[in-house]
Design brief:
Layout (H helix, E strand, L loop, with lengths): L1 H12 L4 H9 L7 H8 L14 H14 L7 H22 L4 H5 L16 H6 L2 H19 L3
Helix pairs in contact: 1-2, 1-8, 2-3, 2-4, 2-8, 4-5, 4-8, 5-8
């Protein structure tokens, strides 16, 4: 698990968004290439399209939950319920560790902060002022812990 957590952090620090980093760290377990994971998770960084809503790292965690437990039949209410329960469990754990699953809250932004579609340049200062690396680490760790708990089943 630690290798995957470190991979997620390294991917984030190499320029991938928070969601991409989390999903790509585990993509091979679900038959995806890194490129497929990067594309699948691309829109969820910055709190979904940089709108500062649900944290992108948490979104990556929820995408992994869908790959693990998501229903594939439209009428599968039990499957949907199981997936939603898992997502809520993961969200609660993420919230417990980080205080929120909301990007703007995690970044300490005021509600009136203007939203821009332009990603910030990834500099040393960027990583110092933002808790995003920690969010990526926590999301990747929570998923690894989930897998470890459920691999014995």
């Amino acid at each position: 698990m630690e290798d995957r957590v470190e991979r997620a952090i390294a991917l984030f620090k190499s320029g991938y968004n928070c969601s991409q980093a989390v999903v790509a760290a585990y993509a091979d377990l679900y038959g995806f290439t890194s490129d497929q994971a990067f594309k699948m998770a691309a829109s969820f960084g910055g709190g979904i399209g940089r709108m500062r809503e649900t944290c992108g790292a948490a979104c990556g965690l929820f995408m992994l939950a869908g790959l693990e437990t998501g229903a594939v039949e439209g009428a599968d209410r039990e499957g949907k319920a199981a997936n939603y329960a898992l997502v809520q469990e993961l969200a609660e754990e993420f919230r417990k560790r980080n205080g929120s699953i909301n990007c703007s809250e995690l970044l300490g932004l005021k509600p009136a902060t203007p939203i821009s579609t332009i990603p910030e340049e990834r500099t040393e200062q960027y990583y110092i002022k933002r808790p995003c690396s920690k969010m990526v680490e926590e999301a990747a760790r929570i998923w690894g812990e989930y897998l470890a708990r459920n691999s014995a089943d």
